[in-house]
Design a protein that fits this description.
Order of helices and strands: HHEHEHEEEH
Radius of gyration: 18 Å
Structural class: alpha+beta
Largest sheet: 5 strands, mixed
Length: 153
């Protein structure tokens, strides 16, 4: 009887408020993520970029068949020697918050090496991979931020 079978009026109001701008936010995030992915593909300190609409994606035709756009998430693999360089990169980002809660208005970064100490998580992905969520900030500002952080490694 007390497990909460319905959402609260406050939560319902917040959902309705967010739905009104959802399309605008998703489109802006996807548009900016494409620009960031294009930048990352051509940077010498980035080994690879994982983004559905990347021109280097071997399944680009499939992505375009299944989706209108690539979304706001992408991953990059940095050309670094150790976790210290990963830390320097992430610590020098000024416009990205370190977090894993994708879908908000702010851009986020999460380095996979942050999971290295966890004994309960076996990760088949490269330790030098960084997951980026591109929020609503101007894409050029985010690119400049990535560029200045990459220059420091």
């Amino acid at each position: 009887m007390t497990i909460g079978s319905i959402i609260s009026p406050q939560d319902a109001g917040l959902i309705l408020r967010g739905l009104r701008t959802l399309e605008l936010r998703v489109n802006k995030s996807a548009e900016s993520a494409k620009k960031v992915a294009d930048f990352a593909e051509n940077h010498p300190k980035i080994k690879s970029v994982y983004y559905p609409f990347s021109s280097k994606n071997p399944q680009l035709a499939l992505a375009k068949k299944q989706m209108k756009q690539g979304g706001g998430l992408l991953s990059i693999v940095l050309d670094v020697k150790d976790e210290k360089q990963m830390e320097v990169f992430c610590d020098n980002l000024e416009r990205f918050l370190m977090a894993t809660s994708w879908g908000g208005y702010e851009s986020l970064v999460f380095p996979l090496c942050a999971l290295a100490a966890s004994k309960s998580f076996e990760n088949p992905l490269p330790w030098n991979m960084v997951r980026l969520y591109i929020g609503l900030e101007d894409a050029d500002l985010l690119i400049e931020d990535l560029k200045q952080a990459l220059d420091k490694i």
